[in-house]
Amino acid sequence: xxxxxxSAIHGKRIVKTVGLVRGNTIRARNVGRDIMACFKNLxxxxxxxxxxxxxxxxxxxxxxxxxxxERLGANAVVAVRLTTSMLMAGxxxxxxxxxxxxxxxx
Length: 106
Description:
It is a single chain. With 106 residues, the protein is α+β, with helices and mostly antiparallel strands. It has a single domain (2-105), classed as Hypothetical protein apc22750. Chain B (Translation Initiation Factor IF3, 2-Layer Sandwich). It contains two helices and four strands. It has helices at 31-43, 48-71, and strands at residues 2-3, 12-28, 76-88, 91-105. It has a four-stranded mixed β-sheet with strand order 1-3-4-2. The longest helix is centred in the middle third of the chain and has 24 residues, at 48-71. It is elongated. The chain starts with a strand and ends with a strand.
C-alpha cells in the first residue's frame, strides 16, 4: 500500500478512485504523564511520553485508514492528511484521511 500526501504518484497512473478512507484513534492522558509534563513545563525540554503517545496514535490512525482502503480494493491512498481535535479535557482524537485509489504502472 502506497500512502502519499501528494495527489499523484510519480510513475503510476490512477485508474480508479475508490473514495474517501479514514482511520482515527482517541487517546487520553494519564496522571503519571501529566506530573512529568508539569515538571518539564517548569524546566523546559521535550515531553517524551507525550511524543511517544502521539507517535503511537498517528501510526494507529494510519494503519486503520490503510485497512479500510485495502477492504475497498485500493492499492494506494493519495492526499493523506492528519488532523487532531480535543474532545474533552485530557482526551484528543487523531484522524488520518485520504482518497483511496487503484494505481498501475505508467
